[in-house]
């Protein structure tokens, strides 16, 4: 049994109740073996055994009072996974499904993603099993304040810098920032994704979606192709999906779908991004509202999807952008995409494709941009926000967007050069994992056992 397989087997025994965490680790470990064979120091220093364990996982009670005067209790978490190359950095997710296993998967991915950006940021993730759906604005504020009442002890602008993820956007970051300031008397860049009125960076809102499209462009160009004129399918209808659609239009491609957890929109003329923003950012409504506002658009509720599938992937397209959540695209979906002639899959969400779907894309030899490379534009721009806060500067939109483009190009080059080094030129899963891993592992070795 190889070193990587051996560590994986041990983890399966130990963390059997955390399937998505095991899935994320398996994807990484199974591609690292060539790098481990090339340099025995990683095994000698037991890097795999160390890197799979979070440095620290904090779990805490969050209690707050709802609009009816009832006391509510939630579970909050912050997983401080790896600080070898910088302060812990990663988003906060508020969703009823959140548990330690999900945050460990996200935090583990974040280590390699952050390393790939070439910036000095470690890996972390956090959140709570709070469901923002159906909550009033004041309830969301009270929850964010209650969450920060514990989290503030564990974070700081050089310690751990959270940001948004599912269910956490500019509004929630603002409430948490206000409470942090009150509790600590300190005005510092402790969270990213802030409003530009108090230290947020221009282009951070757009960064993950835009970065995903920049990454897909690099992949297509490397094959002598481009996204221009291509019909694209996008899943999700939140922050990442909206700005993915916006950038696709800007580069001459056409997004024709979006979806939320209740249903999907197919708009053959192309998704109207201004309407989507109105529905999701302003009204915070369901996509049925989009269909009301755009009469030609077709709404399909999830109850009409084929069992276990996301109907978005059945819409014929040349490029696909999964931007909703983990495991939203399975092997059957992958087969349909490939049969329909899809040439490019670029992941805006974290781990949206199941392991067998990933293998299907790699085997077919299409452009496949794994999440930790393709969606790294969000966290990279968060680091640009940290840099602006630390130097008390505010850069204009174009400056930040140009840096984002440069970083996405760097990530593509580093993943594809590493893939070539190991004789598998188009396998960006291998390339991204090994490139991200080596920097962190070498830093861990240099810092000793501590
Ligand atoms: P948002 O909360 O803004 O949006 C999430 C969207 O996905 C919503 O439209 C939501 O629908 C939909 N969704 C969630 N679960 C499902 C599901 N099971 N089926 C169909 N649709 C679903 O989150 P983000 O856009 O920020 O995040 C989306 C993904 O991108 C996540 O995987 C996140 O980890 C990843 N990501 C985010 C980054 C960021 O900067 N925000 C950076 C890098 C990655 P509904 O509202 O109905 O729940
Ligand atoms: O998954 C991610 O990279 C994010 N949710 C963004 C993290 C960040 O710190 O900006």
Automatic annotation (TrEMBL):
Q: Does the record's keyword annotation contain NAD?
A: yes
Q: Which SMART domains match?
A: ELFV_dehydrog (SM00839)
* Swiss-Prot/TrEMBL GO biological process terms: glutamate biosynthetic process
* The entry's keywords: NAD, Nucleotide-binding, Oxidoreductase
| SUPFAM superfamilies linked | Aminoacid dehydrogenase-like, N-terminal domain, NAD(P)-binding Rossmann-fold domains
Query: Mind naming one GO cellular-component term on file for this protein?
Result: cytosol
Q: Which residues make up the annotated site Important for catalysis?
A: 165
Entry annotated with the keyword Signal: no
Q: Name one GO molecular function term.
A: glutamate dehydrogenase (NADP+) activity
Report which superkingdom the organism of origin falls in: Bacteria
Subunit text: Homohexamer.
Q: Which family does it belong to?
A: Belongs to the Glu/Leu/Phe/Val dehydrogenases family.
Name of the protein this chain belongs to: Glutamate dehydrogenase
Q: Gene for this protein?
A: gdhA
């Amino acid at each position: 049994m190889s070193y990587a397989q051996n560590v994986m087997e041990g983890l399966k025994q130990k963390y059997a109740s955390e399937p998505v965490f095991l899935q994320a680790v398996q994807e990484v470990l199974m591609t690292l073996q060539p790098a481990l064979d090339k340099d025995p120091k990683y095994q000698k220093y037991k890097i795999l055994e160390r890197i799979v364990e979070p440095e620290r996982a904090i779990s805490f009670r969050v209690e707050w009072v709802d609009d009816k005067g009832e006391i509510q209790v939630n579970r909050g978490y912050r997983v401080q996974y790896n600080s070898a190359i910088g302060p812990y950095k990663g988003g906060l997710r508020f969703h009823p499904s959140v548990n330690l296993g999900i945050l460990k998967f996200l935090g583990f991915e974040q280590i390699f993603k952050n390393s790939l950006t070439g910036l000095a940021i470690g890996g972390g993730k956090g959140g709570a099993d709070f469901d923002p759906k159906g909550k009033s604005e004041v309830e969301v504020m009270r929850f964010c304040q209650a969450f920060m009442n514990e989290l503030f002890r564990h974070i700081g602008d050089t310690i751990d810098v959270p940001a948004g993820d599912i269910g956490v956007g500019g509004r929630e970051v603002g409430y948490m920032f206000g409470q942090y300031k009150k509790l600590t008397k300190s005005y510092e860049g402790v969270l990213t994704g802030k409003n530009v009125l108090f230290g947020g960076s221009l282009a951070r809102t757009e960064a993950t979606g835009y970065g995903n499209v920049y990454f897909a462009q690099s992949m297509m160009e490397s094959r002598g192709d481009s996204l221009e004129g291509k019909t694209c399918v996008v899943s999700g209808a939140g922050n990442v999906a909206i700005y993915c659609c916006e950038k696709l239009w800007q580069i001459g491609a056409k997004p024709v779908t979006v979806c939320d957890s209740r249903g999907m929109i197919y708009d053959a003329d192309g998704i109207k991004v201004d309407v989507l923003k109105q529905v999701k950012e302003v009204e915070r409504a369901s996509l049925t509202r989009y269909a009301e506002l755009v009469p030609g658009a077709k709404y399909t509720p999830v109850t009409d999807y084929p069992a276990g599938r996301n109907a978005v992937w059945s819409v014929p397209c040349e490029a696909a952008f999964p931007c909703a959540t983990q495991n939203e695209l399975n092997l059957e979906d992958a087969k349909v995409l490939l049969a329909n002639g899809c040439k490019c899959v670029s992941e805006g969400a974290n781990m949206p494709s199941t392991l067998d779907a990933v293998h299907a894309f790699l085997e077919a030899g299409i452009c496949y941009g794994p999440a930790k490379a393709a969606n790294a534009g969000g966290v990279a721009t968060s680091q640009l926000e940290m840099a602006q806060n630390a130097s008390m500067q505010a850069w204009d939109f174009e400056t930040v967007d140009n840096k984002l483009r440069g970083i996405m190009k760097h990530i593509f080059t580093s993943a594809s050069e590493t893939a070539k080094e190991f004789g598998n030129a188009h396998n960006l899963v291998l390339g991204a994992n090994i490139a991200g891993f080596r920097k962190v592992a070498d830093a861990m070795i240099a810092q000793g056992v501590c």
